[in-house]
Amino acid sequence: MTVDEELIEFLGEYVTENKRSKIEAALDERTRHVTVVLEEIYQPHNASACLRNCDCLGIQDVHIVENRNEYRPNEGVAMGSSKWLNLHRYHGISAAVETLKTSGHRIVATTPNYEGYDPITLPLDQPVALLFGTEEGGLTEEALELADDYLCLPMYGFTQSYNISVSVAITLSRIAERLRTESGIDWQLPKTERDAVQLQWYRGIVKRYELLEEEYWKRGK
Predict the structure, then answer these.
(1) Which residues constitute the domain of residue 195?
(2) What is the reported pTM?
(3) Are residues 37 and 22 in the same domain?
(4) If we measure between CA atoms, which residue out of 65, 64, 129 comes closest to residue 103?
(5) Helix (H/G/I), strand (E/B), else coil: 36
């Protein structure tokens, strides 16, 4: 039994059966095959709604790029979703892209100004990182230049842009459905990553988990 497995078993004694069942169900639907990069999203309402969308649709990681603007979610809108996610912060888009490319992600910039894929045609044969830009100007030129591919949401009216949180929701909902219905996509968390996330979640809901774990190791398990 690994250390994570031991601690999951131990801390699970302090988690209600109902909560354990909900966590197991959520873990079954969690993915890192698709991840989200938010560049310079500064309005608290939008920042929070993006996190809430990611949690609802099973996205585990959100990569936050802060150049001039601080990312400040409004927890009243986020509904506590941030505690179920892994948030990664960067001070430049190049650092985020380098990290994601190293982990095997295809970098896909969402923009209405470039021809490319839509959420239905985007290849999912390898992990994908979806880049979303600011509320006003979209992605920076640097982000667009670093992208491997582009994605554009279909629009049929006079207005040629969605609110950023709406763009995230539409894109992820369609791609999340594809992950679960198209064959050959290994989208679920591997066992070791699933255990790490489960332990993270248990620690987030068990009060004074640090002291409990310290006592656990002191008494020789």
Answers:
(1) 1-30+188-221
(2) 0.91
(3) no
(4) 129
(5) strand
